[in-house]
Amino acid sequence: MRSLTKAVTFAACMLAGAATAFAAPITIKFSHVVAENTPKGQMALKFKELAESRLPGKVNIEVYPNSQLFGDGKVLEAILLGDVQLAAPSLSKFKKYTKQVQVFDLPFLFKDMAAVDRFQQGPTGQKLLTSLENRGLTGLGYIHNGMKQMSANKPLRTPADAEGLKFRIMTSDVLVSQFEAVDAIPLKKPFSEVFTLMQTKAIDGAENPWSNLYSKKFFEIQDYVTETNHGVLDYMVVTSARFWKGLPADVRPELKKALDEAIAFGNKVAEEKAMSDRQRIIDSNRTTVLQITDAERQQWVEAMKPVWKQFERQIGKDIIDAALQSNN
Ligand code: SIN
Questions:
Q1: Domain 2-325 has CATH 1.10.3470.10
Q2: Which of 31, 33, 215 to mutate to test the pocket of ligand 1 (most atoms within 8 A of CB)?
Q3: What are the domain boundaries of the chain?
Q4: Which end of the chain is less enclosed by CB atoms within 10 A, N or C?
């Protein structure tokens, strides 16, 4: 009897071992909306390279750029449904899931990307990564794109120049208020439609970081880009809390390590592209890049700053103060 039990146990172990050895790799779909030659596009490809080489046979990373699989309007729902496992929407697209992350949209809050980075890596920024947990989403890290610039078919030097113009914006109420503050008309539209909206003159202008202006060729169909640096466009890498917790213990830490390294790589790309794509746009002669004076910039600041107060209760004064502190 004992030898029968031993034999059964042995056979069970062999079967379990074989099952592990031949277990199908875990497929992780990473969906995003930008081109591959952008900070986020490069980060996603780097993550695939690192994760697959460090977890051979255990994970299969599929990257879908350019809204091929989902636009940002649907991707968070798709994560919760298990249709994709990773995405990195712009921080302006989380309003349905957390109000606090709206802090990143406040105009003229961060003086530069170094300040944004200090805030994200500090205690308040790290806490915001968990602000989606009660909605079933886990924030795994931030990735930079860069400071936003305004573009239009006419020169924008002061807020008065924006009056009555239609601007495409992301799905953020803060951005609605930001453009309403200068008597412009904000229109929430998906990123995948921006080029056509510009081309058909359904919108007059938009706000984008240099790498999106360049990689999506927006600069070719907007006559002017004003270097406003008035806000930030960064991303949060998110997954489903259930999926993440359910990963095998030997897979999850390696994946997180690969992701952290891919993010660091993507952030270097962001820094480099903020300069090189800006220069490419200037050199193209397809658009005119305008600099504004300090006095002109101050007019934008004064017009848009009341937006902070408007959203203070939703975001939390402590969070806004912590973001401001990061400028020092
Ligand atoms: C992105 O950079 O992911 C797109 C941002 C946008 O919708 O403007």
A1: no
A2: 33
A3: 2-325
A4: N
